[in-house]
Amino acid sequence: xxxxSIKGMNDIVPPDSSTWQLAEQLLGDILQSYGYRQIRLPxxxxxxxxxxxxxxxxxxxxxxxxxxxxxxGDSLTLRPEGTAGCVRAxxxxxxxxxxxxxxxxxxxxxxxxxxxxGRYRQFHQIxxxxxxxxxxxxxxxLIMMTARMWKxxxxxxxxxxxxxxxxxxxxxxxxxxxxxxxxDRRDQLDADSINxxxxxxxxxxxxxxxxxxxxxxxxxxxxxYLDEHSRAHFAGLCEILDKAGIAYSVNPHLVRGxxxxxxxxxxxxxDSLGAQGTVxxxxxxxxxxxxxxxxxxxxxxxxxxxxxxxxxxxxxxxxEDRSAVDIYIISTNEALAAEVLLYAESIRSAAPRWxxxxxxxxxxxxxxxxxxDRSDAKLVLIIGEQELVDSTVTIKPLRNQAxxxxxxxxxxxxxxxxxxx
Length: 421
Ligand code: HAM
What we know:
Layout: H1 16-33, E1 37-38, E2 44-46, H2 47-54, H3 59-64, E3 66-69, E4 75-78, H4 83-92, E5 102-110, E6 122-131, H5 136-152, E7 158-164, H6 168-184, H7 191-199, H8 213-217, H9 228-244, E8 249-250, E9 264-270, E10 278-284, H10 288-291, E11 299-305, H11 306-312, H12 314-319, E12 327-331, H13 337-350, E13 356-358, H14 365-374, E14 379-383, H15 385-390, E15 392-397, E16 405-408, H16 412-417
Parallel strand pairs: 1-5, 7-8, 12-13, 12-14
Antiparallel strand pairs: 2-4, 3-4, 5-6, 6-11, 7-9, 9-10, 10-11, 14-15, 15-16
Residues 81-83, 111, 113, 119-120, 123, 125, 127, 129, 278-283, 285, 301-305, 307-308 line the site of histidyl-adenosine monophosphate.
């Protein structure tokens, strides 16, 4: 039987891995420029971390977690998302008392969903979590930062939807009201919505079933249940976004699938990826730190799915080929292997950013040249017996018509600079 990767869990192999590296670097630089610091978290937590945070009646916790028993009987779960573990770590290390509470992370997440284009069982997120900031200014900063990311990646067909869920109390009241409304019309609901009715009636508003459209449109609206403070917070956010020239639409049906949200929620959505169009999503979760045993602490964050983002920005990311080889070194004789390796070391010391490949494994000059050609290197360098005796190297440009020439190895870096930017 052939060994295969697990369904929905993909290898990222060259040249795609170069595209990923570039995306990660561009996004990491932006996070750094806003003063966010990276936090690295385990990919597994005790199951209770997720059950208590995400909500034990959500789809993620009920149907999608990879949960198993450790050898000592502990129940462990592969993280389905990063927020819960981040709050756990923050509390564990007392980071809330420290200066920098603007954090970001990157890494794989695991959800046992039905795999399809844009939806995987192991996928990757870059996420941001910010603590102890109450005003709408930080909500706006996060959205402006993501807008800058899309600009850098040259993405134009993303639209922003925002909504406010009000306080936990506002939500609770509204949820009760919705439960009543949909229970009275239970015979019009589909199986999925009936399921959501008891677990979280607000998720019915999220339904993609067009035949429920009218029923949902006529349902009570959350904005009637918002308190003054929540209204003012949301108005403050809208005002900054208007001033920043960031277009958005308020979607009263945007409720999010995780229980910890309150007040601002937002999603960046594209129509070019089919059904899995949400590229980045997040919001406030002012109650979560307390729920996990800390002092009441405001918090907000988001996460973007890297698979979806990279698929969208492929043109931008593949234009800049970070895997481009600069120099390929060959020799006429296997006995010169040490000479080749040491010469390559000296080039790397002098020009650390150049990509230098040593041909290993011998072979005829012809076959070595063919490999150099296939590597797309700019130059092939040849060390033969004569070059050994004279301490020289022969340089053969591969990408233009310039003739090959021989220089003393001690002067070769200068000569190479003519060809390698
Ligand atoms: P989420 O909406 O569950 O939120 O996921 C965020 C993003 O991860 C989605 O918009 C999508 O791009 C990507 N994603 C989710 N599931 C999959 C999947 N199965 N395959 C591919 N991509 C996927 C969260 O995870 C929250 N922790 C975000 C957050 C951070 N809220 C506050 N702080």
